[in-house]
Each structure stands twice: as structure tokens, then as C-alpha cells.
Specification:
- This protein is an alpha/beta fold and about 260 residues long.
- It has one domain: P-loop containing nucleotide triphosphate hydrolases (Rossmann fold, 3-Layer(aba) Sandwich).
- It is about 35% helix and about 25% strand.
- The protein is built from 9 helices and 10 strands.
- Helix 4 packs across helix 5 and helix 5 runs parallel beside helix 6.
Amino acid sequence: MKDQPGRAGAPAIELREVYKSFGSTKIIQGVSLAIANGERHAIIGPNGAGKSTLYNLISGRFPVTSGTVLLNGEDITGLKPFEINRKGLSRSFQVTNIFHNMTVYENIRCGVLWSLGYRYSFWHRVNGLREVQRRAQEVMERIGLEKRRNVHAGVLTYAEQRALEIGVTIAGGAGAILLDEPTAGMSRSETARAVELVRSVTEGKTLIMVEHDMGVVFDLADRISVLVYGEIIATGKPEEIRANPAVQEAYLGALHKEAASA
């Protein structure tokens, strides 16, 4: 599958002084961030920091109050989510978002069809589209669900459903992938498998992920941004973030306190 081409030298995703308010409530306050092509970037922060809102601004689900969002150097501010998706950005959701009454194969096929140029058509029989079948099979193999091809998504295990959602997210061949808490609710062994899956399917792509499991973040991310009360207080490599006193005070220290009181 072909990734969307970027303008030479442009970041894959760039935010310039992005603000978002709901009425008088300010959620995102002047976020500027540039993420390079092929980078795996994690956004972390305490509950209520604005991480999901930021995701929704990047993917077009929410309009920005002010500021600019760029994808491969192109201004996508104000575009609808499906328009942004067609330009090469795909996202998953914190709550599993798949078609439970469709099979694994049918879910993946939905993600493949648009990328191959098929729109709403009454004269194409979808079962006869060999390229769609080939690409859907390829995605199922990559996410480890080829043996579950004809199983309805609703009866998959939770970990399998999350893998399927990642499969649907990458099926269209987008060059930039946004994953929202891909390991949430998983056991330790399921998390380990999910990390390897994410590492594999995002090879050569740009990844932005929101994730609360710091082990996953420090394992996967090339760089990390820390969002606190709608502002990025630090961006750097994992070792820099781990050693940053402001991050320890605002976020990592809070996690340790929560764990100690549990």
C-alpha cells in the first residue's frame, strides 16, 4: 500500500499555535508541535490534560478555535475527517470502533476499498475485486487474524478487537497513523503482543499515540510530548522526558503517588 507523499522537508504533522475552547472553557492553549516523517511520537499527560481533544483537532473531528494544522506541509485546518483521511491520515479510537456484525475480513475490506479508488458503485461486485481481497488478506496476516477471517468481530476477544481496529486503521495505506490508547484494558502479555504489532504495522509510517502505560510509551516512542492543562510542557527523547524535573513534578510523580496509594 502506498503512503501519501509529503512535501520535501515538511513535517508529517505540524501544529502551529493551536487553541481550542468550548465556550469560555479553554482546553488546548497554544500547542505548537512538529512531528517528522517516520517518527513514532507519544503524547502523554494526566487525565483532563486535553490529549483526546488534541487528537480530535488533528483528525478534524473538532474544529480548531485558532491556529493551523498541517499534514505533509499542507494546511488541513477546517477540513472534515473524511477529507483528512483521504489525504493520508488515519486514526483509531479509545473505545473500540469496529463493525461487530461483520467478519474480520469484511471489516478490513471496508478500510481497503476507498484507498483503491472504489466509491459508491452499483456495477462492481465487491467479492470479485481481487486487489481488494489481496490487500485485505495482507492486512489480516500483519495483525495476526488471518485464521479468524470469517469470525464476526463481535465475538473476538478484547485484544483481538483492538488488533482488528488497528488493522482497519492501516488498511487504507495512510502514511500517518493516530492510535488512542492501543493497549488500554489489556493484560501484561496482551500488551506485549500489542506493542510488537504496533511496532510492525507502523514501520516506515508516522505514528502519534496517546498511551497511559509508561512502559509502552518508553518502549515505542522516538520522542514524547507531555501535555498538561492544554499546554505542552516538554518534548524530547524518552530518556530526556524521564529525567525532566518539570515532567516528574507534573505527571510522572503523580503516577507514582497514585500507584503508591492503590
